[in-house]
Amino acid sequence: MSFDLAFAVEIIPRVLEGIGNTILVGILSFIGATLLGFLWEMLRRSNRWVRPIVQFLVDAIRSTPALVQIYFLFFVLPYYGVVLPAILVGIFGLSFYYSGYISEVFKAGIEAVPAGQSEAALSLGLNRWDTVMYVVAPQMLRNIAAPLGAYSIGILKSTPLLAVIAVPEMLGSAFDVASDTYRYAEPMFIAGVLFLLLALIAAFLVGTLERRLGLLGTSH
Amino acid sequence: MEPERTERRTLVVEFTQKADSRAAVLIEGVSKWFGTFQALDKVSLNVAVGERLVICGPSGSGKSTLIRCVNQLETHDEGRIVVSGAELRPGMRGLAEVRRDVGMVFQQFNLFPHLSVLDNCTLALRRARKIPKDAANQIAMEKLERVHIAEQAKKYPRQLSGGQQQRVAIARALCMKPKIMLFDEPTSALDPEMVKEVLDVMTALAKEGMTMICVTHEMGFAREVADRVVFMDKGAIIEEAAPQKFFGNPEHDRTKQFLKQLLH
Ligand SMILES: Nc1ncnc2c1ncn2[C@@H]1O[C@H](COP(=O)(O)OP(=O)(O)OP(=O)(O)O)[C@@H](O)[C@H]1O
Ligand SMILES: [Mg+2]
């Protein structure tokens, strides 16, 4: 059974059925993971009682497989009366899993801003929040754009994990084609190419963003 | 032990009451440790309203640590610090309000690189003092004119020379209308030809009656402007005198030695 290019082209529309969910889950999980990651880092910085608790949480998140976390949310939440559509559970799961890593991106990004910057802001009488929002965060953005971009692609590539809780997405569509036709090479190939395309688009967007942030402050 | 302690209490209370009218900054027996290393050793120092104080001393003697305690960029472990009548405590409420009254100029300028010169000056006016944009811009332009750099208002810090950046930093601090200005070696990071333009601005500020605490080794500036020079060594103040006396006839060997080195 050799690779049949015509067949591969023919099944593209069917594999594409899942791409909407892949993009949706990818984007929402990335937003969720970024917001949660930022929250963890802010909590870690807030006071010395909260810091060890949040640090433990972040370590725990990073030391458990994403699949375990997704299964956990899927099977355990209903026990507490929280019944959500699988796709939402999946988005929460991926957001949660990647938030652990992204909080470290924020941490490194903030630490790369010289201490003198927040000292100057605080000495002017800005409160901690304004110091972070108007002085540290804008400078941090430039430091985090690249690693954050890498995680956005990582999240995109992890969306097939949601197959385990039956969220229909692109790899799932490819599997459907495969089990209908008993041909695996072409559907997997097409799914791979489509993921590659999505990753390239994401990388392009990140690159554009990075360039714009890099220009910040050099011109008017 | 006990009677002595009460006595000290009453003394301190008296000081605090006077503080509101006379002392801009009151430092009483302040000690500070970094881990096991003692950076400040029972430092006491009063600065009157309108007084110009110069602090000098060898590297590592605790000069920066001391003035950074005055706006609590460092917290002190022992003793009392009262600024404009408010006692500073670690984690206190209202610290931001106190800091608005205390301007600080750093050795490395610490301008915000992502903001224009004008926005550097207006950020705290708008966020902390809640002054509307137009009014804030007006105040900022006034202060930038005062340091002779108004024409650069639209530029970004990295487009300016070191001397210009430091003058912007001074203008930025002045925008908050501080009662006290702290300078931590404001000219040490500058090329020699730019030192004068910054010192000139500082001298003008002093002549207008600003209360100033300056860590600096610029002898000319200290002689011309300072009411009092303080010498620090190993975390303690070991000599304190008017500039004539300090430079002409210092008492301690350590001071003499230091001044001699400075002249070389
Ligand atoms: N954050 C810190 N952690 C540990 N040690 C510190 C810290 N800041 C200062 N020190 C130490 O405290 C001592 C006093 O430092 P400080 O910066 O106040 O000295 P200084 O008189 O300003 O010196 P310089 O002229 O070099 O600026 C130094 O020995 C320094 O190494
Ligand atoms: Mg210093």
Can you give me a brief rundown of this structure?
The complex is a heterodimer of chains A (220) and B (264). By secondary structure, chain A is mainly α.
Order of helices and strands of chain B: HEEEHEEHEHHHEHEHEEHH
Low-confidence stretches of chain B: 1-20
Radius of gyration of chain A: 21 Å
What assembly state would you assign to the polypeptide chains in this entry? heterodimer
Number of helices of chain B: 10
Question: What would the average pLDDT of chain B be, to the nearest integer?
Answer: 91
CATH superfamily placement of chain A: MetI-like
Helix content of chain A: over 70%
Number of strands of chain A: 0
**Termini gap of chain B:** 48 Å
CATH topology of chain A: MetI-like fold
In which order are the strands of the major sheet of chain B placed? Answer: 6-7-8-3-9-10
Please identify, by name, the CATH architecture of chain A: Orthogonal Bundle
Question: Which structural class do the helices and strands of chain B define?
Answer: alpha/beta
Bin the strand percentage of chain A: under 5%
- Radius of gyration of chain B using CA atoms only: 19 Å
Low-pLDDT regions of chain A: none
Number of helices of chain A: 9
CATH class category label of chain A: Mainly Alpha
Bound molecules: adenosine-5'-triphosphate, magnesium ion
Overall structural domain count of chain A: 1
Secondary structure blueprint with pairings:
The complex is a heterodimer of chains A (220) and B (264).
Chain A: H1 5-16, H2 19-46, H3 50-62, H4 66-76, H5 86-111, H6 115-123, H7 128-158, H8 170-181, H9 185-215
Helix pairs in contact in A: 1-8, 1-9, 2-3, 2-5, 2-7, 3-5, 4-5, 5-7, 6-7, 7-9, 8-9
Chain B: H1 2-21, E1 23-34, E2 37-48, E3 52-56, H2 63-70, E4 78-83, E5 86-87, H3 95-100, E6 102-105, H4 117-127, H5 133-146, H6 162-175, E7 180-184, H7 192-207, E8 211-215, H8 219-225, E9 228-233, E10 236-241, H9 243-248, H10 253-263
Parallel strand pairs in B: 3-8, 3-9, 6-7, 7-8
Antiparallel strand pairs in B: 1-2, 1-4, 4-5, 9-10
Helix pairs in contact in B: 4-5, 4-6, 5-6, 6-7
Bound molecules: adenosine-5'-triphosphate and magnesium ion.
Adenosine-5'-triphosphate (ATP) is lined by residues 34, 37, 39, 57, 59-65 of chain B.
